[in-house]
Amino acid sequence: MNNPKRDVVILGGGSHAKMLGAILLRRGIAVKGYISKLKPSDDMVWLGQDEVLESFARDGAVFINGIGSVKNCELRTRVYLNAKASGAEFMSIQDTSAQVHFDTAMPEAIILLTNAVAQVGCKVGANVLINTGAILEHDVEVGPHSHIAPGAVVCGGVKIGAGVHFGAGAVALQNLHIGGGAIVGAGAVVTKNVEAGTTVVGNPARAI
Q1: Distance (Å, rounded) from C-alpha 162 to C-alpha 118?
Q2: 109 FRET partner, CA 20 to 30 A, in 9, 29, 34, 177?
Q3: Residue-range definition of the domain harbouring residue 116
């Protein structure tokens, strides 16, 4: 995980953003504050709304995408891309309990939360969230802006496209392909390829 000497700013003011701030504090990294449309809870320093982002970027702050994903990844993606267009530079976060074995350098804005696992041979794009207890087995590929939700298990060799929401507790069997923008419902068991933009639910997973 990066350990910057610059100001650290989190985008978002909800409970997910607050959790990321707590992880940083455990790593000895203080958070300058939070940028969000609404004022966050009193124990979170509110820096203002989106219009202040560019000034913090000019002053050399480094950013974290603190937007979660419940049903799809559209908001997380939009926040990240808009910030990049304003000159923002993002850092990655890895909880101390996460076990990561990437063969290549970790791209920016990766978030690995408590007990997340990424085994040998995994490749993960920018702005990916690997949530609490999620498992990427060997040689899994995850496209940018995707979210692997809590407790999900992605078996070896699976390829996940960009902007995929892979729901809590869902499972994908070996060597499958999940197309960009797909949504895998919580608890689904994916036994065959999923086309781009498709929502699948159930065991075995079926399109709806």
Answers
A1: 17
A2: 177
A3: 93-201
